[in-house]
Write a structure and sequence with these properties.
With 269 residues, this protein is an alpha/beta fold. Helix content is 35%, strand content 11%. The protein has ten helices and nine strands. Helix 1 runs antiparallel to helix 5 and helix 2 packs antiparallel against helix 6.
């Protein structure tokens, strides 16, 4: 029964916050809300991982240990399942980001909202996800075209904190381990990485929030479980409110398939 795998990492689409319009929360939120995540899970992930309906989005992976570290009720109103085209349109309309010249694409300050969605060529599950992001843009009047450079090129661009070539681009996130979810929260939002060169550490979109850095500084020394839940809940609230990036799927830690037509009794759990 799906999901077949144990989700550990969160492949994530980062917004380049220097791109026209992507500095606006309304634009980022609308794109993230409109994406058809169930199709990503079904196609890109072949139902190997849970959907965002089954495990609502946060900064946590789907494992029980991480899911216990934040207050789900406190962030419920900030979570989105996806494929909410009408809701996304409403967000843009209310922000005054509309199509003023009748060409079908929305403008901000007279400039058409037009972006590329980028990941390495040959990374088929990521490419499928980026195609679905592009399709979501078209539904809400935001032009998004896919771009799939070779990994050798991709890795020289997205790690440059001042790059202007990629607008919406995919990077992996930390999986399971003793430093997570703190390490993942740091990877997603730490200002220490914003705008840096040769950056393999995180926050590739350039997001800066002093409160995030305050929380990240105190978590490693905190031993009180209730306090940790409070901190991680606040980090999740900030992430789902500001949307500097958005997770596209939960990805299994291991892909495990066996053929029992000859040998049997492989472990099933």
């Amino acid at each position: 029964d799906a999901p077949y795998g144990i989700g550990a990492s969160l492949p994530t689409a980062f917004f380049n916050l220097t791109s026209n319009g992507l500095d606006q929360v309304a634009v980022r939120k609308a794109i993230a809300m409109a994406v058809d995540y169930p199709t990503i899970i079904a196609n890109a992930m072949t139902n190997q991982s849970p959907t965002f309906a089954q495990v609502p989005r946060s900064i946590m992976n789907p494992t029980a240990g991480e899911q216990a570290l934040y207050d789900k009720e406190a962030v419920k109103d900030l979570q989105w399942i996806g494929n909410d085209v009408e809701g996304a349109k409403k967000v843009l309309d209310e922000a005054g980001i509309v199509d003023t010249d009748g060409d079908g694409w929305r403008e901000l300050d007279g400039q058409k909202l037009s972006y590329n969605a980028v990941c390495p060529n040959g990374w088929s599950d990521w490419q499928a996800a980026m195609e679905i992001v592009a399709a979501a843009g078209e539904k809400i009047g935001v032009e998004i075209t896919t771009l799939f450079p070779e990994w050798g090129v991709y890795q020289t661009v997205y790690v440059n904190g001042e790059q202007t070539e990629y607008d919406i681009f995919m990077v992996w996130s930390n999986g399971a381990g003793p430093t997570n979810p703190w390490g993942r929260a740091r990877q997603l939002m730490s200002a220490a990485f914003a705008g840096t060169q040769n950056n393999w550490n995180g926050n590739w979109g350039g997001y800066v929030n002093p409160r995030v850095d305050e929380i990240l500084a105190v978590i490693p020394n905190e031993t009180d479980q209730a306090k940790l839940v409070e901190y991680y809940t606040e980090l999740t609230k900030i992430y789902l409110t500001d949307i500097p990036s958005f997770t596209l799927m939960y990805r299994p830690d291991q892909f495990y398939t066996v053929n029992e037509s000859v040998w049997t009794n492989y472990p099933a759990a």
